[in-house]
Amino acid sequence: MRIERYRYNLKQVAKLTSGTQTLVAIQPEITGKKGVLTTDESKILRI
Protein backbone atom coordinates (compact mmCIF):
# COMPACT_ATOMS: atom_id res chain seq x y z
CA MET A 1 0.00 0.00 0.00
CA ARG A 2 1.20 3.50 -0.78
CA ILE A 3 0.89 4.72 2.79
CA GLU A 4 3.25 2.01 4.01
CA ARG A 5 5.73 2.93 1.29
CA TYR A 6 5.68 6.59 2.39
CA ARG A 7 6.19 5.55 6.00
CA TYR A 8 9.12 3.31 5.07
CA ASN A 9 10.75 5.98 2.88
CA LEU A 10 10.38 8.62 5.57
CA LYS A 11 12.02 6.28 8.11
CA GLN A 12 14.90 5.76 5.67
CA VAL A 13 15.35 9.54 5.28
CA ALA A 14 15.34 9.91 9.07
CA LYS A 15 18.06 7.26 9.40
CA LEU A 16 20.22 8.83 6.70
CA THR A 17 19.96 12.31 8.18
CA SER A 18 20.22 11.46 11.86
CA GLY A 19 22.56 13.88 13.57
CA THR A 20 21.91 16.68 11.10
CA GLN A 21 19.20 19.29 11.01
CA THR A 22 16.71 18.36 8.34
CA LEU A 23 13.34 19.63 7.19
CA VAL A 24 11.23 17.13 5.29
CA ALA A 25 8.18 18.19 3.30
CA ILE A 26 6.24 15.68 1.25
CA GLN A 27 3.29 15.91 -1.06
CA PRO A 28 1.72 12.51 -1.54
CA GLU A 29 1.18 11.43 -5.12
CA ILE A 30 -2.50 10.84 -4.28
CA THR A 31 -3.22 14.58 -4.47
CA GLY A 32 -2.90 14.50 -8.25
CA LYS A 33 -4.96 11.42 -9.08
CA LYS A 34 -8.51 12.24 -8.12
CA GLY A 35 -11.12 9.85 -9.44
CA VAL A 36 -9.06 6.70 -8.95
CA LEU A 37 -8.44 6.89 -5.20
CA THR A 38 -8.99 4.11 -2.72
CA THR A 39 -11.36 4.74 0.18
CA ASP A 40 -8.42 5.22 2.55
CA GLU A 41 -6.77 7.72 0.21
CA SER A 42 -9.99 9.70 -0.11
CA LYS A 43 -10.25 9.91 3.68
CA ILE A 44 -6.68 11.22 3.91
CA LEU A 45 -7.38 14.02 1.44
CA ARG A 46 -10.49 15.14 3.36
CA ILE A 47 -8.47 15.89 6.50
- The percent range for helix content is 40-55%
Let me know the largest β-sheet: none
Low-confidence stretches: none
Rg calculated over all Cα atoms: 13 Å
Beta strand count: 0
Rounded mean pLDDT score:
77
What would you call the shape? elongated
Helix tally equals 2
User: What is the CA-CA span between the terminal residues?
Assistant: 19 Å
How many structural units, i.e. domains? 1
What's this model, at a glance?
With 47 residues, the protein is an all-alpha fold. The protein is built from two helices and no strands.
Word description of this protein:
About 50% of the residues lie in helices and about 0% in strands. It is mainly α and about 45 residues long. The longest helix is centred in the first third of the chain and has 15 residues, at about 1-15. It is elongated, with a radius of gyration of 13 Å.
Layout: helices, strands, pairs:
Layout (H helix, E strand, L loop, with lengths): L1 H15 L22 H8 L1
Index terms:
mainly alpha, elongated
